[in-house]
Each structure stands twice: as structure tokens, then as C-alpha cells.
Amino acid sequence: MRTRSANILLALALIAALGLLVFWLLSMPRPLTAADIPQHTPDVANGERLYHAAGCISCHQPSPELKDVAADVPAGGAPLHTPIGTLYPLNLTPDPETGIGDWTDLQFVNAVMRGISPKGENLIPALPYTSYAHMKPEDVLDIRAYLAGLAPVKSPEREADITALPLIRRGVGLWKWVGLDTTPWQPDPGQSESWNRGSYLVNGPGHCQECHTPRNAFMALDTAKAFEGGPHPEGKGKVPSLRGLIERGRYTDAADLASALQYGEAMGYDKLASGGMGQVQRNISQLPESDIQAIADYITSLK
Amino acid sequence: MVSKISVGLFTAGALALGLSSAAMADAKAAIEARQACMKANGAMMKVMVPVIKGQAAYDKAAIDAAIAASQKACGGWADWWGDDTKPGGAVKTAAKAEVWSDAAGFEAAGNAYMTAEAAVQASTDEASFKAAFPALGKACQGCHEKFRQAD
User: Three-state DSSP class for A37?
Assistant: First the structure.
């Protein structure tokens, strides 16, 4: 009898150990390697454009403590409140100690497109690498080149206020199996060039779906309900649907939406300032008119 | 004796109920007044923006009428922000808690709006109207960004 219960205990311990091992293996970061990074001569102007399209400044804005730093410098450190705790987004200026000056291109691409820090840890998906994963690596390298040209700012790195952060990071690794789709963005040859440009900007750098698409039980984007809107990620209010914007009478046509994205509420386009969309709209307004029109062409095609 | 007590209790209860529903009616009236004010401001934008975009001719009388309608609808503004009109209260509102937690910021945003509106009202021709308008649009935008909830 005793040997039997000892055997059961041993079996249970083995199962638990095996479970831990499987968890450990499945939650390991799966980075890109040097072979995945194309040979590329960086285009800084394109990098600046994509930096705005990706909305980097919305989260990487300077901490309120950095009084001498302009609000449009991505020095990081301003608290970002999420349902799991407060994050202090990284300093994106090329300061070698507190910024990303020391990072290699591969480290940068892995952080942006795979959510893996240079130390090999999984990053919390408040950084929308789930969308950036669809970007062209060349565009990510261009953003890197643009950031490398900014004036370095000292902005001390601050660890996130999240309970059991190392375990959460491992959990994120496991979650990436369901939540991180690394398929590169594909054009639709049946659509116009502008529509395809819009589709890329919206689904890659623009990461619109992160808020405008509801999530399933695994907190992964529910792609069957793409762009249908959902609960606000900060926990209060709702994010509106982007489907049928013209059919529902929100905008008269794609040009009207383009104008709304360019000027926002300053030109009387209601509901483009609240819930964080004000920052998004400000970023979009930095893009060339053709890109804004492309975004509008794509969004208004969503029925 | 018993009936006296119960009459007393009943009266007190009815009074309390009456008072609380009166308070709720006040909150409801205040929030509805805020919404009517915003609606008037929205209507004002619909008169001004087409002129800015070049889709409508400049019409000083129409602009002045829209501003007057907004000022009439928004007249009681300062009295509409009682604690019982905060988000999460009995009456639904799109105002954010920051209206009360950052009262100084909210007042500054309101003052920026008033200054911009006065400048538009003082404009006398198309050129001066077009020069004054952007500050007004920015005032709407800036206040909604900080103090209005997402849908």
C-alpha cells in the first residue's frame, strides 16, 4: 500500500516536472536570426514616416520628470497604465546607457517584430509587436536608422510595476503560440495600389487592430471579427467599429475620412480625440497625404 | 402610538426618497445641459468648418448666429459639474474623472475655448475668421482628448 502511494506521488512529481519542462520549452523566446535580416541601406526619411505610422511617440513619450525634453522626443519613461500594471516604455533615443544606442540592428528588429528584449526576455505585448510582426524588416531597419539620428537623451530605465514580472514574461512566451502571428503582410493583387498601401499601414505599423478588433478567450485578436470594435484596452469605454463607416453615415466618403484623419476634431470631426485616438490622429497627420488617403481607402472598404 | 411612528417613518422615508430623486433629477438636468451645450458647439462647427474647407461661402451672420446659439446653450456651464455628475454615478456621462481630479486643467481648457471663441466672434471678415478659427478647433480637440471618455 505504502509503495503504491509512493509510486503515485513519484508519478505525479514526474508529470509536474514534465509539465514545467514543457512550459519552459514552449515559453522560450523564438527570435529572428541574422539570416532573417535583409541586406539593406537604410532610408532615414522612410524611417521617419514609418515611425509616425507606427505611433511610437504615443507610448514612448518623455517622462514628466524630463522637464527640458520636448514632448515629441521618444525619450520614454512616462507611465503607461495597463490592466496588469504600470509600464515605463523604453527610451528610444540613441543614448548608449539609458537608450538603444548600443543595440544591434538584429536586437532592434527582434524587439519590434518578435517582442524579445536584447537580454532575451519576452516583452509585454503592450508593445504591439503582434502587428509589427507583419512589417517589412526593411521598414523596421529604416525606423532604427531614423531613431539613431535623434539627439541622445538620458532617461533612466524603470522596471514595470507588474506582480511576478519574470513569470508573466514566461507566460507571454507561451501566449505567443496563440497570440503572435508572424506571417508577413501580403498585398491583394485585386486591389488598387493605394488600398494595398493602406492595408499595410493599418495592419502592420499602424496596429489599428490592437484596439479596433476584439480579443478571444486567449486574449488573441479574434480575426473573424476584425475591425468590429471592442472594449477599450484601458478598461473604460468602448473602441468603435471601423466597418461600414460610410454605410453607417459616419463619413461621406474615403476623402472625408482622410480629412478626418488629417485634422481630427480641430476640424469638427467628432470622436477623434477621445480614448487615445487624439494621439493616433496626431501621428497619422504627420504622414504624407498619399498615405493618409491610402489608409482611408482601405478602412472605408471594410464592410 | 404605533401609527404615529409609522406615519413619522413614512414621512421621513418619503422625504428622503423625494430629496434623493430631486438630487438625481438635478444631476440628470446638469448632464443633459452639458450635452445640449456640446450639441450646439457641434452645430457651430458644422457652420464654420465648410467655410474653412472652402466648401461654403463666408457668411458672418450665420457664424454669429451659431456662436450666439452656443453661448445660449452653454450659459450655465459653471454650475453643471457637481460631484453627483461624475462618471459612474446614477446618470450616464461621457465626462472623464479627470474633470474633477484635474480641476485646474479642466478650467484652463475651458478658458482656452472661451478665448478662442471670443476671437472668432470678434473676426470681421473671411481672412480674420480663417485666422481665428484654428485655435477654436484646437480647443475642442484638446479638451476632448483629456476630459472626454471614449464611446
Answer: coil
Give the CATH fold of the A34-168 domain.
Cytochrome Bc1 Complex; Chain D, domain 2 (1.10.760)
Q: Which three cell numbers, joined as nine digits, stand for B118? A: 471670443
Cα–Cα dist A278/A261, whole Å: 10
DSSP string, A90-103: PP-S--TTTSSTT-
Q: What pLDDT sits at residue B5?
A: 61
Q: Where are the beta strands (DSSP E) in chain A?
A: 80-82, 85-87, 230-231, 238-239
| Closest to A117 (Cα-Cα) out of A103, A96, A131 | A103
CATH number of B81's domain = 1.20.120.10
Q: What are phi and psi of B95, to 5 degrees?
A: -70, 145
d(CA A71, CA A64): 9
Q: Say which of B42, B87, B141 has its CB closest to residue A273.
A: B141
CA B111 → CA B4, B43, B63, B106, B119, distances in Å?
56, 20, 21, 9, 12
d(CA A140, CA A290): 20
Model pLDDT, residue B16: 52
Q: How many domains does chain B have?
A: 1
Alpha-carbon gap, residue A289 to A291, rounded angstroms: 5
ipTM: 0.77
CB–CB contact B52 A273 (8 Å):
no
User: What span, in angstroms and rounded, lies between the C-alpha atoms of B67 and A195?
Assistant: 40
**Are B137 and A267 in contact (CB < 8 Å)?**
yes
Residue found by looking up cell 478626418 in the block: A260
Chain A residue with minimum CA distance to B92: A237
Which residues in chain A are classed under CATH 1.10.760?
34-168
Could you read off the pLDDT of B19-38 as tens digits, one per residue?
455 666 789 999 999 999 99
Instruction: For chain A, list residues with pLDDT below 70.
Output: 1-2
Across the interface, whether the CB atoms of A237 and B42 are under 8 A apart is answered no
Answer yes or no: are the C-beta atoms of A262 and B49 closer than 8 Å. Answer: no
The Cα–Cα gap between A55 and B72 comes to: 40
Distance of CA B142 to the CA centre of its chain: 15
Q: What does pTM read for this prediction? A: 0.88
Domain span at residue B63 reads: 2-147
